[in-house]
Structures are given as structure tokens and as C-alpha cells.
Amino acid sequence: ANMKLILIFSALIGASLCLETFVGHQVLRIKTKNEEEVKQLQLLESLEHLELDFWINPSAPALPVDVRIPAVSVQSVKAFLESQGIEYSILIEDLQDVLDKEKQDMAESAQRQRSSNTFDFGAYHNLDDINAELDHLASEYSFVEKIQIGESYEKRPLYVLKFSTGGSNRPAIWLDAGIHSREWVTQASALWIANKIASDYGTDESITSLLDKMDLFLLPVANPDGFVYTHTSNRMWRKTRSKIPGSICVGVDPNRNWDAGFGGPGASSRPCSDSYHGPSANSEVEVKSVVDFIKNHGNFKAFLTLHSYSQLLMYPYGYKCTRPDDYAELESLGRAAANSIRSLYGTTFQVGTICKTIYQASGGSIDWSYDNGIKYSFAFELRDTGRYGFLLPANQILPAAKETWLGLKKIMEHVRD
Amino acid sequence: RAMELPPSHFPATRAAAVAVGYLRYLRGGPGRGLQLRELRRARRQDIDDVGHKYYLELELEDVLDRDRTVNCTAEVLYHLGSKTSAPDVQVTVQGELRSTEEADKEFYNRIRSLEKELVAENIPDSHGNVPPELEPIHLLAWAASGYVIWQNSTENTKFHLAQVKHVKQVKRSDEDLQFDFVLLLHEMVSQEVLPWEVTLLWHPQRGARVSQS
Lengths: 417, 213
Hints:
The complex is a heterodimer. Chain A is of the alpha/beta class. Helix content of chain A is 41%, strand content 17%. Chain A has two domains: 26-93, 2-Layer Sandwich (Alpha-Beta Plaits); 117-416, Zn peptidases (Aminopeptidase), CATH 3.40.630. The model of chain A has no long low-confidence stretch (mean pLDDT 92). A five-stranded antiparallel sheet of chain B has the order 1-2-3-4-5. The longest helix of chain B is centred in the first third of the chain and has 18 residues, at 10-27. Classes of the chains: A alpha/beta, B alpha+beta. The A-B interface holds A 123-124, 230-231, 235-236, 238, 253, 268, 273-275, 310, 348, 350-352, 356-359, 385-394, 396 and B 6, 8-10, 17, 33, 35-36, 38, 63, 124-129, 160-163, 184, 186, 188-193.
């Protein structure tokens, strides 16, 4: 009686400890020579206590029979086959080993998918490839969303990446690139920056605390019509591609079209000019879409825009040469950001108001944003200082993006705190 | 009587660009590409009935030898009513520029021995690439652009060479090399990119000269 109890207990314990493992399980491939042998295997199949798992069932002599045999039964099944003269070979010596390896391979592959990216951030891309990458980022990260804020003149969507880890209408930061289409390092840098922020959230302290408190909206191609035109027709195109009534010339300078000192000095009233301000403020749908979006949101704290070239870090004003009320803070923050930029590769950015540093220019975006209550309004002019100008070699994209990111981060951290 | 100017503000940087353009024309060649590393100091003097004179202290580097810099001083005089005359420029280089004698000779012989006249376009290309064998042509274009920039600058302009749209070598019966360029110049204030035709003569000893043809 005691023996029986022990057996039952151990069976129960065994059952409870039974994790489904396949340690020692073997998979045999059996080559039957005739109907007699097929019948033998079918007999074997009927012995349920062996718990044989036929991957290919015995049916006809010409077809192989694959069977998984639990460890305990391996020796006895083999003995049976040998005694019947039935040929077999070992397909899998130990099934658990194979499963373990497969699991590891899958984990590594998933890790590679997550951490790698087939998009080459160190090269220039066309609009379609950029838009595809925006989709990729949005699908890969739960806190990244691609939204459309409007359409260009030629009906191309204006896509913004929204970085948000929660909350409802959190204080937000705006970043755009490529408003002047020939400034190719800016769209390219914006893509790298988007990927950097997305992939570093959760591991980088600064980015994590930033996105835990604030949202970020990134418009990598603010002027898609112009951008396509730089690829198809004229690499030096700057403006939008809108038709101007009464003129054979096309396009408006989108950074003279904002409602800030519109039509004043530093913008041209001639449609053929590369700094043509347009028939009226916000006449360009590319500008109006951003204006409407920011106004409707109502909670933007920073407005940052990327241009090239000249290596400058500027704050308002452009339309007038007087200092903004927040001059001291913006100058100090600008200098701190420029120092961060320089810390990486020694690249020097000059800091100052637009009007003093580069020229008087009316209708600019950061003047508009500043006068509409967004205190931290900065315009960056990225590499270089004229050696290549707009035609910056692709091998400088990553250095430019990385150093620029340090400057942006400095500003964003200040806004966050 | 000369007013100190912040080197980061545009009046000084525009004058510096003129000085660099002038120096590129004077001392540039297939083996030397001078660019501004830093504008160290700038002063301006307003001279009645004459114009505005800028005094500049510049630190320059050669793009082919960026480990070294060379200091120079420059004076740029923009004439009153400056629509018709180019600014007067004087530049003094402190010390010696790196010798380009060997590179110049090699380039000269290479071009002279070409069977077909050299033709090229879009230097750099859209992606910023310059094939290594065209870099000397690129630098000669810089020299040519230096002349154009010097001749056409005012206090309200700042020019850079944006791209060599087209270059065609023209074989000559004398010893000079001749290159007919179509240059694209980017003017920063108006933001225009303007095509400019310029013919450049070059010789290893005689240097670069714009042909007034």
C-alpha cells in the first residue's frame, strides 16, 4: 500500500513539476520499404502511452514518416524499429536544443529590428523616402504619431511627427526644417533628430524627462513642393511653388510670409525675387497651416526652426532692429546652446538677433511666434560658412545633425525646467 | 575716429567676405583654397565725401591644409554712391602661405596634355560631391569667383560661390590655361542665386587673371 501511495504522490508531483519541455526528445525519419512496414508503424501510432507525435503520418511506402519521440521512449522505439529491420535516421538529436536556438535567434532578430534601421541618415533622400521613414518611426514607437496639419500648394501633405508620452495638450515644443527647400542639410538633420529622440526615450535621462513633461512636434519638410522641385528641376530653389497672379514667376519666400512686420524692409515685393513676401501675410498655405495648428493648440512654449547655411543661432527680431523684451535670457540661452554645439566638433555658431547678425528681414517665422507669446523662439543656420553652402557634402550630415541636436537639447532643457 | 564693430554682426562679416574674395583672386590657384577661419577684429571709419573704410583682422585657413592658419589684415573701402565702382581692397598676409609649386606644376602638365578640352558641370553636385580630379578646377573657380565678388560687392551684399554650373577649357596658343566658367553666386541679402560668366586665365608662375573679353 505504501509503495502505491509513493507512486501516486511522485506521479502527481511529477505532473505538477511538468513544464512542457522537449529535452531529450528525438525526431526520427523512417523510410518504409513496403506495405508491411507501413502497417507496423501504424501499429506503433496506436500505442497512445508512448505519446508519439507523428509529423508525417505513415500512409504509403514511398513516403517518409517523421515522428517525434519523447525522451523516455526513444530507446524502446529504436529497438523496435531495428528488430523489424525498418530503416530510420535521426533528424533531430535533441529537440529542446533546436527550440532554444530558435528562441535565441528570434530574440536577436527582434533586437536587431528594434535597434537598427535600414534608413541611411547620413545620405540625402527624396520626399517619398522621407515620408516612408516618418511612417516607420510612427509605427515603431508607441509615443510617436504622424499627423497631417495641412496640404501644400501642389496638394502634398504636410506631415508632422508628434512625440507625446501622455497627458492632454501638454506644453509643447515646435521644430521645423526645410522651409527653404534648397537647405538640404536641414531636412536630413531633422530626420536624424527624430530618430534620435525616439530611440533614446527611456534610456537618455534628458530626453526622457523632457518627453515625460512636454510634447514635441517636428515638421521635417515644411516646404515639400519646393523640396521636390530641388530634386527634379532646380537644386537652388528656395521658395514655395505657388502661382502668382499677374506674374510669370513662381513662388513666395515662406520665411517672409509670416504676419510679423509683413511687407517691411528686408523682403521684396517683386514676385521674381527669391525673398518675395507674397501678396499678403499667410498667403502661402504652407505657412498658414503651421500658424493655424499652433494657434489651435494654444500651448506651445518654444518655436525652433532650421535653416542653412552660415552657422548662426538667432533669436528675434528680424523685422526690426530693436531688442526683444527677453533679450538677456535669449542671448544667454543662445550662447549656452552655441557652446554645446561647439563642444562636439569645434564648430562655431555666432549668436545674436536676426537683424544684427544677418540682415533685417520682415515676415519671418520666429518673429511671428515670439510676438504671439512663444518666448523661446530661435532660428538656426546650420553648416557650413560658404565652402559648400547649400551643397553640403552628405558626409557632413551626421556631424551637423549631432552638433545641432546638442544645441536644440540645451534650449529644450531650459524650456522644460 | 574708427569705430569698433562686433565681428559677429553683418557689416563686419560682409567686409570680410570682400577681403577674402579679393585674396582668393590674388593668391588662389588649383592647389590653394583660402577661406575665413575667424574674423578677429573689425573697425569702421566713415570718411566724408569718400565712403566707408573697414579695418579687419582675419584668421585664414587653406582648405587643403586645415591644421594651419595664417593671419592677415585687410582694408576695404566702399566708395560713396558705390553702384559703379568696386571697393578698394588691400590685404597683407602675415607670414608665408604654404607653397603649391608642385601641385600647380602637376595640374598644369595634366591639363596641357589632355587631348580633348576639359568640360565639366555641377561642381559640387546636388549632394555636395566633388570628384577628386575636379577639386583643382573647383579651386580655380573660387579664384574666379573671388574676382567677381570683389568687383560687385557693396555694403548691402554678401556673395558666396554656390556652384560651378559649367566649365569649359579653351586651348590657347600661348602658355596660359583658359577656363570659361558659368558660376552660380549666392547673394545672402537678397537670397538670389545668380549665374555669372567669367573667363579665367591661369599659369603656375603668373597666377590667375580674369580675362576682360
